[in-house]
């Protein structure tokens, strides 16, 4: 039996609950980079559909049309809720397709457009009457899943200076309850992907019940893309990103 089959079974048994997978019970939740729409990319067939850059529009290729999606800027904690206009195919590395109007509204960095996205179920209490909500208080909802990635709060002055000097990103590969399990996976990646730089793989203890296996740091998206593709081809379906771990 190939290792990938064993590996998938192993992850199902050993991993902590992953909130990023599509489920009938749990809303979809993921953190990663947004693809900012451009007409040129559509003409060059990098994406399969059109958006209007003068409008607040988004597209998620897995969620149904008209699904309410909450897009959060993790750096500022500002968010907006919009309907998924339609399904459009875009590069797999990205989590969602957004217009420049959305990016500007949320003050998203065009070079490193990190976002967190959360599917809003119709029966959730904070669903608004309209299709979009602007957050004036800059507070994240307490209904966000516990397993969503958090960014540590430092003083505002220190954060702004630090982010300007250095933006380090990490790929969150998997979360475990056992450090031994994380070490096992790290070893298997080293064996199965000999071209992967093992020095990038790190085991981080978040608390007594959660151990993360991450890869990094990365200072640019292009560097991250290469390892992301290797890990996806290795068998990981959904990978998230952590800022300044």
Fold and architecture overview:
With 245 residues, this protein is of the alpha+beta class. It folds into 2 domains: 3-15 and 165-243, Alpha-Beta Plaits; 29-146, Beta Barrel (Barwin-like endoglucanases). The chain is 25% helix and 24% strand. The chain has 6 helices and 10 strands, in the order H-E-H-E-E-E-E-H-E-H-E-H-E-E-H-E. A 6-stranded mixed sheet has the order 2-5-1-6-3-4. Strand 3 and strand 4 form a beta hairpin. The chain is globular, with a radius of gyration of 18 Å.
Topology:
Blueprint lengths: L2 H12 L14 E8 L2 H5 L14 E2 L8 E6 L4 E6 L12 E3 L1 H6 L8 E7 L35 H10 L3 E8 L2 H14 L8 E7 L2 E9 L2 H14 L5 E4 L2
Parallel strand pairs: 1-5
Antiparallel strand pairs: 1-6, 2-5, 3-4, 3-6, 7-9, 7-10, 8-9
State the main characteristics.
six-stranded mixed sheet; globular; Barwin-like endoglucanases; Alpha-Beta Plaits; 2 domains; four-stranded antiparallel sheet; 245 residues
The overall pLDDT average reads 76
Total strands? 10
CATH level-two architecture of the largest domain = Beta Barrel
Could you give the distance between the termini?
36 Å
Radius of gyration: 18 Å
The CATH H-level superfamily of the largest domain is RlpA-like domain
Total of domains: 2
> Could you state the order of secondary-structure elements as H and E?
HEHEEEEHEHEHEEHE
pLDDT < 50 stretches = 16-23, 125-163
- For the record, the CATH class of the largest domain is Mainly Beta
What structural category characterises the helix and strand content?
alpha+beta
Proportion of residues in extended strands: 15-25%
């Amino acid at each position: 039996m190939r290792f990938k089959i064993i590996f998938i079974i192993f992850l199902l048994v050993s991993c902590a609950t992953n909130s990023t997978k599509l489920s009938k019970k749990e809303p979809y939740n993921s953190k990663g980079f947004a693809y900012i729409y451009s007409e040129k990319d559509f003409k060059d067939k990098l994406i399969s559909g059109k958006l209007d850059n003068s409008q607040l529009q988004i597209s998620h290729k897995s969620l149904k049309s008209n699904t309410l999606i909450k897009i959060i800027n993790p750096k500022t904690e500002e968010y907006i809720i919009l309907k998924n206009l339609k399904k459009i195919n875009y590069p797999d590395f990205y989590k969602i397709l957004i217009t420049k109007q959305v990016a500007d509204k949320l003050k998203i960095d065009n070079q490193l457009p990190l976002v967190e996205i959360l599917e809003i179920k119709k029966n959730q209490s904070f669903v608004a009457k309209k299709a979009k909500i602007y957050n004036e208080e800059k507070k994240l909802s307490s209904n966000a899943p516990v397993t969503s990635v958090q960014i540590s709060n430092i003083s505002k002055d220190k954060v702004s200076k630090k982010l300007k000097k250095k933006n380090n990103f990490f790929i969150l590969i998997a979360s475990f309850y056992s450090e031994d399990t994380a070490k096992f996976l790290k070893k298997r990646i080293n064996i199965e992907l000999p071209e992967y730089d093992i020095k990038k793989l790190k085991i981080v203890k978040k608390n007594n019940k959660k151990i993360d296996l991450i890869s990094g740091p990365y200072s640019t998206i292009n560097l991250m893309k290469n390892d992301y593709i290797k890990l996806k081809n290795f068998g990981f379906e959904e990978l998230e990103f952590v800022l300044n771990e």
